[in-house]
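Can anyone check this?
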Amino acid sequence: MPRLAAGHLSLIAIACAVLVACSGERAATQFRGVALPTPLAKPSLTLTDLNGQPYDFAGATRDKVALLFFGYTHCPDVCPLHMANIAAVLKRMSAEDRARVVTVFVTTDPQRDTPDRLREWLANFDPSFVGLTGTKEELARAQQSVGLGEAFKEYANADSANYFVQHGAQVFAFARDGIAYTIYPFGIRQEDWANDLPKLVRYASGAEIRRDLAAQAKAGQLNVAPQQTAAPASAFVISKAVVAEPVSQDEAAAYLTFTNGTAQEDTLVAIAADLAVQAQVHGTMGEGEGRHMMPKPSVVIPAGGEVKLTPGGDHIMLFQLRRKVVAGDTVTLYLSFVRVGAVQLRAPVVPYADLEKFLGLAGKSVK
């Protein structure tokens, strides 16, 4: 049976034990999943689907409940039980609600999990389940993007073809706003999925989820996963976070500074915002008339270094704004890093004319 992977979710089994013990006593209006101490932004990862085509996880699951799980088809218990429970609950939901849920199974055993095997294995549960694979490096980055350590082989005997894979045992439930507020560890039951999935489908924004989880926390009825401690937060600082007052509700830009005082580099792998349907880091490429913006899947913050997202350089783009914001408002940003984990911060909205002063760029030319 797989152990929980290392990283900021490594102690979830403790919360799961509490969850299983008391789930039957919970009111139907309460979430049964384990709440993340800091919501996790949906990662911008692209892997390979069973037809050999690139699958953009964030793009393909936009405005849907995305259930993301890392496992393998030779798994004796955790993987088939998760898939069977989700499939059983989906069958009881209306066609309209089912269409709002995408279950994505990423193999941690690409050597044995060929596309044909994955397709056949997943079809035993639900033909709508999405199977993804990739290179060893791509799969490692995908696991890192949600705070999991890389899965590894554990041999039962000298026969190299006979092995288990140790991998994360939790399903990440990304809500329709692109953020995971809850996860579902091994031990979660069908009745728990039946309680939570319709709520996740019904809530189009994260505001309702945050409200319900806050009420449960206040009542002492919320299971919360332990906060990760992989890197000292005090040595990794995010400052000067700001959103430029948008001209329209089509898009907005955000800027900030990362200061990494640790001895190891870190990587920003995902970003989301309560204001926007989609958020991406964009880099400015080229010179002169050939200057243009391109999405960047990640941003590396070197050990002992500083990275600034500023006008004219790398910056954050927020698309399809959910509401109108003006100077004086604040926007919640959700950032996910390989080492530091999930970070949530509030960024004030300021006029474009005040950006240089706020960011400390006054008197400096933009190249």
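Reply from J.R.: I decoded it. The longest helix spans residues 78-92.
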